Amino acid sequence: MIKKLALCCMFFLSLAAQNALADGQQPVKDDSTEGLPSLRRDAENGDPDAQEFLGMLYIYGDHLPHDKKEGCRLLRESAKKKSKARRLYDKHCR
Length: 94
What we know:
The protein is mainly α. It has five helices and no strands. Helix 2 (36-44) crosses helix 3, helix 3 (48-60) runs antiparallel to helix 4 (68-79) and helix 4 (68-79) runs antiparallel to helix 5 (83-93). The radius of gyration is 13 Å and the shape is globular.
């Protein structure tokens, strides 16, 4: 599970870097919190992958304060579009 989460983290941070480059911003240099603003923006704009990942960050308290309620809200939104997010929602939020 931890390996999958680490891989997801690296994947989404690379997506955040790509989005930043597309927006004309500086790329994300490491795995710090620099990619969180674009991840939040994507989640707010309905991206199910961003919602799923940000939800898990909140649930685990990784780079963000632990907030299970917000994490579950984001997973619930993602679960409307992705079955994997539904399984995560069932596991962590029920």
